[in-house]
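Continuing from yesterday's entry. The apo prediction looked reasonable, so today I'm repeating it with zinc ion included to see how the binding region is handled. Same sequence as before; SMILES copied from the compound registry.
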Amino acid sequence: MSSQKFHHKATTTEAECTCPIHRNRHRDPFTAPLGLSFANDIETRSIDTEEAELIYNAHHSYMDGDLHNANLDHHGIYYQNELMGAITYRYPMISRKRLHFNTDGELLPEPLSDSDYDSLPNDLEHRARDLIPQLTDRDIAEAKVVQGDRIVAADRICLGVRMANLASAGLAASQENFFTSESCPDPVKYLITFVRSDYEGSMVKALRGKGWRCVGWTEPSQASNREYKEIRDHYKWCFVCPIEEIIDQCAITDWL
Ligand SMILES: [Zn+2]
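Holo prediction written out below.
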């Protein structure tokens, strides 16, 4: 038998799942061997809230329920016309964000001091220094406070199947689709997303290759007045992408 590795690996829970990805499925996802590019077979389409909720409830266990009413759109991620996952676009839970730029107008990370990096747990400190270069005052030409209605979060990137690179290729297809759709409000200039530091994998590489910058991180925070959420126990890298860079993007094959 060959020890070939495949893009998709079936898991036993999928067989019993009744979410929109798995119910009435006539065949398993195509199992392209790793190395064979599949990005051209990926597309995204709007799906309704109920469908998105069913997918998140089945496959996004660390953030059950509570779909926020600031949602702008939900996208299904399709591979060869089969639903594989979902992404939700919404206004982020921030009223404004300070962003920094160099003299060429390029987005920079937040200015961080040694003690900021040192405040991270040991394993993350090294990663942070690699992801987020330390700036000096001379690097920063401009700091802008961007109002919350100029920013949209690409949230809850969720897959119902285990398939290498699908999350990054799905996000690439989805963000282009979103920005050219009527669901994207005109004033929006930036996309933001938060990547769990222990889940980052290929997503960080993919984001960095497509105009996203890691600008900083968020610390774990459990709000005392809210229901406990496991996801809030984790550090998350904060990535921002200027909308112009998405418009300039070419084929999503660049992702793979
Ligand atoms: Zn499912």
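Comparison notes:
- The longest strand covers residues 71-79.
- The helical segments are 12-16, 49-59, 114-118, 122-131, 166-179, 201-208, 243-248.
Will overlay with the apo model tomorrow.
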